[in-house]
Amino acid sequence: MGPAPAIAYSLMRLRQMDPQALVAFFPSDHHFANEEAFITHIDFAFAQAKAHPRRVILLGIEPEAPEEAYGWIEPGSPLLSEAGNLISEVSRFGKNRPGGSPPP
Fold first, then answer.
1. Which of 45, 84, 101, 103 is the most buried (most CB within 10 A)?
2. ∠ Cα 98 99 104 (to 5°)
3. pLDDT-derived band of residue 101, with 50, 70 and 90 as boundaries?
4. φ and ψ at residue 85, rounded to 5 degrees
5. How far apart are CA 57 and CA 78, in angstroms?
6. Comparing C-alpha atoms, which of 66, 63, 73, 69 is closest to residue 94?
7. pLDDT tens-digit profile of 47-90?
């Protein structure tokens, strides 16, 4: 089931408290060595969420190696590129096959 029930509950409670709130979830155990770059991307994502309140903003990174336990996000059409940050539509989500590679 993963983090979905906790996220759904949190979102329902937050909506009651502040329907205009911006929310970020980081259900991951990744380590980012370049904390400054990570924070820059987070700030950019929040700025875009404020500018486009009807959009859901996802952050993704290129994996260093295939990983069976995680799925993947296939970017779609680019929406905005600014200072090294790129925002794209999401073409599709997928679950990795054994060996960690996405389907063709």
1. 45
2. 80
3. low
4. -100, 135
5. 13
6. 73
7. 988 988 888 888 877 777 777 777 778 888 888 888 778 888 88
